[in-house]
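[Q] Does anyone have a clean structure-token version of this?
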Amino acid sequence: MAATVTDFHYGAVTPVAAYLMACLGSALGLRCTVRSIRREARSKKNGWLSLAAVSLGCGIWTMHFIAMMGFRAGGSDITYDTRLTVLSLVVAIAVTAAGVFLVGHLGSGAKILAVAGVLMGLGVAAMHYIGMAAVQVHGSIHYDAMTVALSVLIAVVAATAALWAAVTVRNLWSSLGASLVMGVAVTGMHYTGMAAVSVHADGMGTASSQSSIDQLSFLLSMIAGPLVMLVVAATVVMFDPDLVLGDDARSAPRADAVRRGTGVAAGLYDPLPADANAPVRHRR
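[A] Here you go.
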């Protein structure tokens, strides 16, 4: 028989918390990617790109499993396969790494963005459905093919938009705005995928309060690690003023010089070269 399925067992708590985690992961990933493209040494560039991938991957994965805390199928206990759950985290980080490393090293051309966006979007969708494959119920889980296809499309569009924002949006406030939009897209992908789910219970199991507690405890223990990684990434960002302030910090000295009648306005030095780290050439 068809079981009654809900994704909002705890009301608005889980979707709001899931959205906030998606926004946090997106914001950290965007800022770290911005830092990586500022003509850093290759080792530093790879470090920032790795931190961006971990932030995005952990943010998306944590969003998914916080949202899954609200998932219930009437008449059936719900458990999770630990190996598949961990695999979904590995996939989330791996595909985001592939996307950010492509744009970080090869640039933001349309073809690169398209390839990286499709790769990352399909990977995010794979993370979601591997996570769903880890769900075990007394019965079987079925999916509506059209709704699944829509969720994959949303994932690809969201991933492409995230990569575009990562290499285009430099200002801190613009990055925060982009992360809020990304949070909507990523969370929307999750709940679109969940709308495709139907559960056919076999009638042999019954939902119990103990099962709910066990499910909640398992999910909380699983997201503890990714949450720690997000806290570490946030700490790194907060202690890097250039990363937080973005282009505003770099443009401030030039603006101050113009206001004081010095610098470019007074002809004392040439405009900043393409490489902002290159030495300034003083006029004789």
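[Q] Thanks! Anything notable?
[A] Strands lie at 2-3, 5-6, 72-73, 78-80, 135-137, 139-143, 197-201.
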